[in-house]
Amino acid sequence: MLNSIQQFIQEFPELLRSLFLVAFPVFNPHHKLYFIYTIVFIILILGVYYIRESKSNGFGLRKALAYCFPKSLYTQQSAILDYQCYLINGILAIIVSLTAFFTLSQITSDFVNQFLCGLFGKSEIQVEMTLALKIVYTIFAVLVTDFGVFYAHYLQHKIPALWEFHKAHHLAEGLNPITGFRYHPIDLGLKHSMKIFFLGIYMGIFSYFVNQEITAITIAGLLISSFLFRFIIHLRHSHIWVSFGWHLSHIFQSPAMHHIHHSEKVEHHEKNFGLIFSFWDYMFGTIYVPKVREELTIGLGESDYQNIWQLYYVPFLEAYKRISKSLNRLANARAN
């Protein structure tokens, strides 16, 4: 007991630092609202305005800001729900950070490693730790984590009960950077757990065969892919159409492809589940690459929630109804 208290006291400054970074994300390089990513986003959309509109409308500051941050988009009721959801989820994140003294990825990695040792015996392979090995490890870590996010997203659309929680994100009637934080906590937990779970399995298998711990190449504590992706991530949830072109979009998910994902058009439903890479969607038959800019209506063609509390409790009710119906059908099938 005394040792636990002493350990907690030793870790307390780090805990306070972690809480500070959660409470003030503009100073947290892990967070999408980190000030550098936000500044780059603003520069990018101003650049888009300059290229597309300045010749015909001029490049006055007021016109540029009106184009990049239209008042009607950022003040609509759906956007207000985005902001409220961001604040509440931020408070929940602080609470979680107080209890999360371990990582699921490390636990999963240790379990897989011990399982393989029990099954095949301890690996006798001795591999020299080289830069090339770290690069290989990092490349596959990037692929595994991105597939974890893709597959979680795929399941959120395909499993009716999970869809009720993910639906809160898709009911948004406009896209702004804070829409990227509009997730039900159950939905958010599934996505992160799936990503970390896949990464943990990969870490365990890799460490078993190289017979030592290995770490990926990171920048600011993020996988290099995650760090680089942060600079364009806000374009995914914005009204600014940015495409990577026909060929490159079959490799990388462009912001325009994610706009398609949020479209209420039937032909766009359940398309483009990927985060960074598009080839997962190609493999699962869910890719949709627009050849030209398409006029989109964002949402599901349904009314958004009337207030923030509906966003949090209605998915539980609807998921319960879905599960009850499925159980009743199963019971009737067995009875017959």
Please explain how this structure is put together.
The protein is mainly alpha-helical. The chain has a domain at 102-335. Helices cover 63% and strands 1% of the residues. The protein is built from 15 helices and 2 strands. It has helices spanning 2-23, 35-52, 54-57, 61-68, 71-74, 77-99, 104-120, 131-158, 160-170, 185-210, 224-229, 233-236, 255-261, 279-284, 308-335, and strands spanning 218-219, 222-223. β1 (218-219) and β2 (222-223) form a beta hairpin. α1 packs antiparallel against α6 (77-99). It is globular, with a radius of gyration of 22 Å. The model has no long low-confidence stretch (mean pLDDT 86).
Notable characteristics:
336 residues, mainly alpha, two-stranded antiparallel ribbon, 15 helices, 2 strands, 63% helix, 1% strand, globular
Q: What is the SS-derived class? A: mainly alpha
Largest sheet: 2 strands, antiparallel
Poorly predicted runs: none
Multimeric state of these chains?
single chain
The portion of residues assigned to helices is: 55-70%
Order of helices and strands: HHHHHHHHHHEEHHHHH
Give the strand content: under 5%
